[in-house]
Amino acid sequence: MHTTQDPENSSILFQLKKVITDGIDYAGSALTLLQAQATALAAASAAFLFLVFFAGLAVIIAFALLSVALGLWLTHLTGSAGWALLIIGGIYLLLAVLCGAVALHWLKRLKS
């Protein structure tokens, strides 16, 4: 019977304790890194959604400003706001018909 620990056994136990401690530290570091990556992904996704929203808003504002500028120019050109509105309405009607025709063409292509 051994009442005292052998230096070899205590060295092995110390090394085992050190390996377990290092493993726990490594797992903690890996989890911290994973959390940081998840946070970075969430922040990048939020920034991307904000930029997409901002770009859509900018397109809507640009379209409204273009319509106003075109209306003012046509009013100056024709001398009547009514004619300017009819011309702008006709242009937008043609644009809507063209977009609808292209959409139906793509829909037929997708069906077949």
Mass-distribution shape: elongated
Strand fraction: under 5%
Cα distance, first to last residue? Answer: 86 Å
* Quaternary status: single chain
Strand runs, count: 0
Give me the strand/helix succession: HH
Helix % is: over 70%
Poorly predicted tracts of residues: none
Task: Compute the number of helices.
Answer: 2
**Biggest β-sheet strands, sense, barrel:** none
Decide which structural class fits the backbone: mainly alpha
The average pLDDT value, as a whole number, equals 91
* Integer-rounded radius of gyration: 35 Å
Structural summary, described in words:
This protein is mainly α and 112 residues long. It is built from 2 helices and no strands. It has helices at 7-78, 81-111. α1 (7-78) packs across α2. The longest helix is centred in the middle third of the chain and has 72 residues, at 7-78. The mean pLDDT is 91.
Entry keywords:
2 helices; mainly alpha; 112 residues; elongated
